[in-house]
From TrEMBL:
<dbReference type="InterPro" id="IPR019405">
    <property type="entry name" value="Lactonase_7-beta_prop"/>
</dbReference>
<dbReference type="InterPro" id="IPR011048">
    <property type="entry name" value="Haem_d1_sf"/>
</dbReference>
<protein>
    <submittedName>
        <fullName>Lactonase family protein</fullName>
    </submittedName>
</protein>
<dbReference type="InterPro" id="IPR015943">
    <property type="entry name" value="WD40/YVTN_repeat-like_dom_sf"/>
</dbReference>
<feature type="region of interest" description="Disordered">
    <location>
        <begin position="120"/>
        <end position="160"/>
    </location>
</feature>
<dbReference type="InterPro" id="IPR050282">
    <property type="entry name" value="Cycloisomerase_2"/>
</dbReference>
<dbReference type="Pfam" id="PF10282">
    <property type="entry name" value="Lactonase"/>
</dbReference>
<comment type="similarity">
    <text>Belongs to the cycloisomerase 2 family.</text>
</comment>
Length: 351
């Protein structure tokens, strides 16, 4: 019998308080079966989670429109979580966070006002009060979703010397120079790339070649950009449709590369599918291979774990498992599923 792998599940609370559990789920890598390990900690709307690169520490955004915060936890025996502290981000609705690879800072994207907060980590790994609050600006053509800046994710740029912020409201990829040894912002920010109007950039996958693959939440396309480290800018190369489904508006969410960089997976809310692309021409070309139902409603996030895609279907309140074919890279339903209240993030505990 194979050893089960631990997954942390973040999500949303059922009422205005936002109180929700970070849950433990264990995956059998041989079969794809999921086992519910119960609640590990309770905190306000932990809609996105991140691990510390040195292990033993977990972080969650607290996605509240007013009083947004970030909370740290230590991982103890029996996969218990003990809170180390909560600090305000200074922005509204924090929805994504990055633990810098040096392990000394957290960077949080605040959706509501587009601000990005930078938090040092204490000697015990607890989040400290923010040292920087980086404001966004701009808007886009969608009057409901792009009336102002909306920072949706933070990603390390190729080479690790800049942080990239996908701003859904401004159709922009912002950049900030960061010390590779500390994660501290060490200079003024700027625009790395302007996406086509109405793109709504959400999440970014970084190819080993330096190409960026960006999910457009509003235009339902995947955009390919080429990063230039000398100028710290990215040139738009091409874009492909995230789905071939018609009759239902599509809002792509998570985008993930396979470990070898040969496949790209995109979750599509609305059609409730995952599309897989072959990645060719050293990351510059995406060729559609297949589109597969997730088996749930509104796939907000997923993780690639031990040859499986574990999908958080927010509106159906389910986690579903797709097995990835080793030869083709195409995921197929396994029939394994687990009820989970309003799941929004799947984070492997290791790897």
């Amino acid at each position: 019998m194979s050893e089960r792998q631990l997954l942390w599940i973040g999500g949303y609370g059922a009422d205005d308080s936002g109180a929700a559990d970070i849950r433990r789920v264990r995956l059998d890598p041989a079969t794809g079966d999921l086992a519910d390990g119960g609640a590990a900690a309770r905190t306000a709307n932990p809609s996105f989670l991140a691990r510390h690169p040195h292990g033993g520490l977990l972080y969650a955004v607290n996605e509240l429109p007013d009083g947004g915060a970030v909370t740290g936890f230590t991982v103890g025996p029996g996969d218990t979580l003990t809170e180390t502290g909560t600090v305000p981000t200074g922005g509204g609705a924090p929805c994504h966070l990055l633990v810098h690879s040096a392990g000394r800072r957290l960077v949080v994207a605040n959706y509501q006002d587009g601000a990005v907060s930078v938090h040092p980590l204490t000697g015990t790994g607890a989040p400290a009060p923010r040292e920087r609050l980086l404001a966004g600006s701009g808007s886009g053509p969608d009057p409901e979703r792009q009336e102002g800046p909306h920072a949706h994710s933070v990603t390390a740029a190729p080479g690790g010397r800049h942080l990239l912020v996908a701003d859904l409201g401004a159709d922009e990829l912002r950049r900030y120079p960061a010390d590779p040894d500390t994660g501290a912002i060490n200079g003024p920010g700027g625009t790395a790339a302007c996406l086509p109007p109405g793109t709504g950039p959400r999440h970014v996958a970084v190819h080993p070649s330096g190409h960026l693959h960006i999910a457009g939440e509003l235009d339902a396309r995947v955009h390919v950009l080429r990063w230039d480290p000398a100028s710290a800018t990215a040139r738009h190369v091409t874009a492909v449709a995230a789905t071939e489904t018609t009759g239902t508006r599509c809002h792509p969410s998570e985008v993930v590369l396979s470990p070898d960089g040969r496949r790209l997976y995109v979750a599509n809310r609305g059609p409730d599918t995952v599309t897989v692309f072959a990645v060719e021409a050293d990351g510059a070309v995406l060729r559609r291979l297949a589109e597969v139902p997730t088996g749930g409603a509104w796939p907000r996030h997923f993780a690639l774990v031990a040859g499986h895609l574990i999908v958080a279907n927010q509106r159906s309140g389910t986690l579903t498992v797709l097995r990835v074919d080793e030869r083709t890279g195409i995921p197929r339903p396994t029939g394994h599923r687990l009820d989970s209240p309003r799941p929004a993030c799947v984070l492997p505990a290791a790897g």
